[in-house]
Design a protein that fits this description.
about 300 residues, alpha/beta, five-stranded antiparallel β-sheet, 15 strands, about 25% strand, disordered C terminus
């Protein structure tokens, strides 16, 4: 499958500080690529270089096989974007803002505006001035402008900002719908990691300007920690009995028995049976899966430790 978005050793320096440091990433057709990082990690700078808004210090970006550069303006017919704040003309209505965007994109179909207004749930606000929109509806307007010309590629920086829970679900379903038949390829950055975990088919983690990990959904599932937690009235006795049965268990900080044994996680009933037989019946058994937020923090913490050791 071809790469729709691609960077090679992408680097951006400001007065000796590397905001983005040799980032090479690949996004294939129909993927939703979740780009994760702390504030200041280099997410927005990378997106701005992908859009040609700022020039790389070194390295290159490609969209649909075409080099991103100031002179290659044909590329933007295929790209929709929203970076940081969704800009709009404050004294113009939602429809008037979209009419201007339609003219800029040279869209011949007048129905495109009505279609995108309905799709983004903006019908009730169609004639409201942009300056009177809530943050969530201003965000919807920004996404509507990005989708107006039915782009093949979408680059979205924090698209869920200001949306209520129902709005977040609507945008999630919209993005999934766009990629269902590989109609679009989406590159999305967000600090709402739980939401990214629901929609991304691939994630890239950027930390201190460096892409430290890039992996697909299946790889992510394999690397996330899954553990079995057990509560019992006799912790020491239960540990001793389970150790004799071949389980590697320990008491965690919360006073619960914990094991990451794959056999225990897959077949907790066997472990429970062993505890009952040893007269240490559990009062709670829970399989706990590491969420994306915990995984992300663990990965960047390990990377921070590695950098600290290398500089020691």
């Amino acid at each position: 499958m071809e790469d729709i978005i691609c960077t090679h050793d992408l680097t951006k320096s400001y007065q000796g500080f590397r905001a983005v440091d040799n980032v090479s990433l690949r996004v294939k057709r129909g993927e939703i690529y979740g780009f994760l990082g702390l504030n200041g990690a280099g997410k927005t700078t990378t997106i701005r270089m992908l859009l040609g808004m700022i020039r790389p210090t070194s390295g290159s970006c490609f969209i649909n096989g075409q080099t991103v550069s100031a002179g290659n303006y044909h590329i933007w017919k295929q790209v929709g974007y929203m970076v940081e704040t969704p800009y709009a003309y404050p004294d113009l209505s939602v429809r008037e803002n979209l009419e201007i965007a339609s003219k800029l994109h040279q869209i011949p179909d007048d129905s495109a505006i009505s279609r995108v207004i309905e799709r983004l749930g903006l019908t009730a606000y169609e004639y409201r001035k942009a300056k009177h929109l809530s943050m969530g509806n201003a965000q919807r307007l920004g996404i509507a402008k990005a989708l107006l010309h039915q782009p093949q590629v979408l680059l979205l920086d924090e698209p869920s900002n200001g949306l209520d829970p129902a709005g977040i679900v609507e945008i999630r379903e919209l993005l999934q719908e766009l990629t269902y038949n590989k109609e679009a390829t989406i590159f999305i950055s967000s600090h709402i990691l739980g939401e990214i975990s629901k929609i991304a088919t691939k994630i890239g983690i950027i930390h201190n300007g460096r892409l430290i990990q890039e992996l697909g959904k299946k790889e992510l599932e394999q690397q996330r920690i899954v553990k079995l937690l057990i509560k019992t009235r006799n912790i020491k006795g239960a540990i001793k009995s389970l150790s004799h049965s071949g389980y590697a268990v320990r008491e965690n900080k919360k006073g619960l028995l914990e094991t990451q044994s794959k056999d225990a996680v897959r077949h907790p009933d066997k472990l429970v049976k062993a505890l009952v037989k040893a007269d240490h019946p559990p009062t709670m058994v829970l399989v706990e899966e590491e969420d994306l937020e915990s995984y992300f923090l663990r990965v960047i913490d390990k990377k921070g430790d590695a950098l600290h050791e290398s500089n020691a």
